[in-house]
Structures are given as structure tokens and as C-alpha cells.
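<instruction>
Derive C-alpha cells from the sequence
<data>
Labelled lines for chain and fold:
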Amino acid sequence: MKLHYLAALGALVLGAAAQAEAISATSPQSIVSAMQNAGYKATLTKDNSGDPMINSSSGGSNFSVFFFGCTKNTDCRTVQFYAGYSDRKPSLSQMNDWNSKKRFSRAYISDSGNARIEMDLDLDDGGMSTKLFEDNLEFWVAVMGAFEKHIAG
């Protein structure tokens, strides 16, 4: 009986620890902390509509993390990594080539002809582990670097 109690208590503690480590859009600070712990600068601010937004950079390129599905600028559901390049004006063919070959990101040309790239993360229903978030962050940085090379020439 005592062993069953200890096993149940252990499972409860492990479950609580796993929950505490979850990265969630409902907690923008959890994303800021995860980014900073992974070695990135991360500044929490707000976008034009008042929703949370994080500014960061990697390899000399700035990027933002936008929050979506928010209720009154809180309790957000998803995030989107975003980078825009005002100094790069790729062709439609370059964008179509990128989008036809890449699965997890999407690129487009803004109204002013500038290159844009985005990658969404669904953090609804409990978020994701810190480890998985860090993996997605590193993937985003790699995608951003590959995109910059793709539109360079």
C-alpha cells in the first residue's frame, strides 16, 4: 500500500514538473525565458493591437515572435516567428521556389516588394516542453538563414 502511494505521489510530482516546464502562448514570459536560456536576446513588448510580441535576433538578422488567438491581449493560443527584409526584393519565382520546396515555413513578398518569412507554432492546449520549443527555435533560425541565402542571389 505504501509503495502504491509513493508511486502515485512520484507520478504527480513528475506531472507537475512537466507542466511547470511547459512553454505556452498564454505565458509570454515563458517564451522569453526559454529564448534567453537558449542564448538569444528576447525583449517582450506589444504589437500595434496590444498583443504581446517578442523581438530577437540571430546571426545579425532581426526577427519577431507574434502572438495570435489572444483574448483582450492576453490568454494567447499560438505564436508565429517572423522576419522581414526591407533590403531584399526577391522575384515571385524565388518565393514560389522556396514555398514549393519547404514544408514548415512560408515566404511571401510584401506590398512594397520586400521579402517576408514566417513559421507558426501551435501552443494551444498545454503548450510544449522547453526542449521541444528550443528545437523549434533552432529550426526557425536555420530556416531564416537558409531563406536569406535563397533570396541573396
User: Anything to note?
Assistant: The beta strands are 43-46, 52-58, 61-68, 78-85, 106-109, 115-122. The first strand starts at residue 43 and ends at 46.
